[in-house]
Backbone:
């Protein structure tokens, strides 16, 4: 699977509101443009392969979106937030608009 964009993602430590368990590749999440209203978010699959991302870790990951419009919006914003079960569990900085690092 080819990612729509690549971002450096930090999964917050559990004590800071992050997940209590590691995230595995192909994890599906909601990518939000902001942590404040108005809410704008898109469903995505994280594509990083290899070892799971543990709470408190940072990793470069590809993202594949269900809605193609998300790519342009999040690329322009330059960063976005990863949500899971209604909570912000991580932050991401866009590195590339497609599967190739800049």
Residues:
């Amino acid at each position: 699977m080819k990612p729509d964009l690549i971002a450096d993602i930090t999964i917050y430590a559990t004590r800071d509101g992050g997940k209590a368990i590691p995230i595995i590749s192909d994890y599906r999440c909601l990518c939000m443009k902001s942590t404040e209203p108005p809410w704008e978010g898109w469903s995505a699959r994280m594509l990083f392969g290899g070892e799971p991302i543990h709470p408190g870790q940072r990793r470069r990951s590809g993202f594949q979106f269900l809605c193609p419009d998300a790519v342009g919006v999040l690329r322009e914003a330059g960063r976005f937030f990863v949500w899971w079960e209604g909570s912000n569990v991580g932050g991401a900085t866009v590195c590339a608009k497609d599967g190739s690092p800049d």
